[in-house]
Structures are given as structure tokens and as C-alpha cells.
Known about the structure:
The chain is of the alpha+beta class and 85 residues long.
Amino acid sequence: MVGVHDDRWAERPLALVVLKPGASATPDELREFLAPKVARWWLPERWTFVDELPKTSVGKLDKKLIRSDYGQAKYSVVELESTKP
């Protein structure tokens, strides 16, 4: 998950999901799976499925590139109803 701009909350998580070959899941199923494991306000509303996560030259998640690509609408993002009150 990476924090991305949100008009209401300033920043909210974007979940980038890489599924194993042959696997399938929906954002609703994944959020339901996470719900008992994390605080409610940590659950992302924005989900995108990618083939691989972009990494930096040292192998870390390239959050700057992810945020840039998100801002340029390069991801197909599914937005679920907010879990915030």
C-alpha cells in the first residue's frame, strides 16, 4: 500500500495487488480479508491490480513512481465505498 492524494483526508492508501498466476480476487474480497487484521481506517478504498510492483534500483518499492503513475491515471483503479465514518 502507498499513500496517495485524497481530497477529503489529504492522503489515503492505494493498494497495489499482484495476484499469483491463476489466482483471482476482488477488491471487496481482499478488504473483507484484511478487515479483522487491521484498523478500519487503514483499509484502502482504492485498489489496483498490477503484473509487478515497480522497484527502485536497490529493490525497494518505488513509491514516487507509483504516486506519479497514479496521478497520471496510468492505473485502472477500483474505488470502493469509504470505510471512514
